[in-house]
Design goal:
- This protein has 234 residues and is mostly helical.
- 79% of the residues lie in helices and 0% in strands.
- The protein contains 11 helices and no strands.
- This is Probable membrane transporter protein.
- It is found in: Cell membrane.
């Protein structure tokens, strides 16, 4: 077991705990670290890990899902996913880290500075479109969805974002594999990290009804900015 794998396992535990507790953050935690120590795993391993992660969160709080929002986000998500595949195809492998880091920092800053607003159909469509491109190309797609629901009750945010993610990740992962952008090693690494994912989700289930989502969200955003900047300058 290599030091890089152990670091990724710890990162998965932290990311799963953060998203399971606050509704977002796994990609923001995992993507910069994976980009630094195992860039070849991105974005396939990240998307694969988020399937069981979001499936679990969706099932745990299925009673709070905003199905109207899920429908509109998913429409935009499915229609715009090919744009993410196109971005991944035209960006050189040695520049993908810069793209991941830049996307992470930008997403975190936008989430941090966004004013209070009430989401509607336009917001859902916009969030779905942006998520389709950024998540398919880099694995980071949470902030647009979290922005749309950041002022809603925590259970609704967690469950609805998880439902939107689950639909989009299946589409993104399928297209990437069809296009030959995935690798057996990336999928195998994701499978090997599932136990770490389970630990993080188990820990989140112990505290998700008591933890301060505001403080947790601030931690994720600060971590994302620092990690993203490190990835951009490495």
């Amino acid at each position: 077991m290599t030091a890089a794998f152990l670091l990724l396992a710890v990162t998965v535990i932290v990311g799963a705990f953060v998203q399971g507790s606050g509704g977002m953050g796994f990609a923001l935690v995992f993507a910069p670290v994976a980009g630094l120590v195992a860039a070849d795993l991105m974005p396939v391993a990240l998307l694969a890990l988020m399937l069981p992660l979001n499936g679990f969160v969706l099932w745990r709080e299925r009673w709070a899902i905003d199905w109207s929002g899920v429908r509109w986000v998913s429409v935009a998500r499915i229609l715009c996913t090919p744009l993410g595949v196109w971005v991944l195809a035209i960006v050189p492998a040695d520049k993908l880290g810069l793209l991941i880091g830049g996307s992470t920092v930008l997403a975190a800053l936008v989430s941090l500075l966004a004013p209070d607003f009430k989401p509607g159909r336009g917001v859902y469509l916009g969030a779905g479109a942006v998520t389709a491109v950024t998540e398919t190309a880099t694995g980071v797609g949470g902030p647009p969805l979290a922005l749309a629901y950041q002022h809603r009750p925590a259970p609704e945010l967690r469950a609805t974002v998880a439902a939107c993610f689950l639909v989009g990740e299946i589409v993104s992962l399928a297209l990437l594999l069809i296009q030959g952008k995935g690798s057996t090693s990336a999928m195998a690494s994701a499978a090997a990290l599932v136990p770490a994912l389970a630990i993080g989700l188990w820990l989140s289930s112990m505290v998700h009804q008591r933890i301060s989502s505001a403080r947790l969200r601030m931690f994720v955003l600060i971590f994302a900015v620092v990690s993203g900047l490190l990835l951009m300058v490495r």
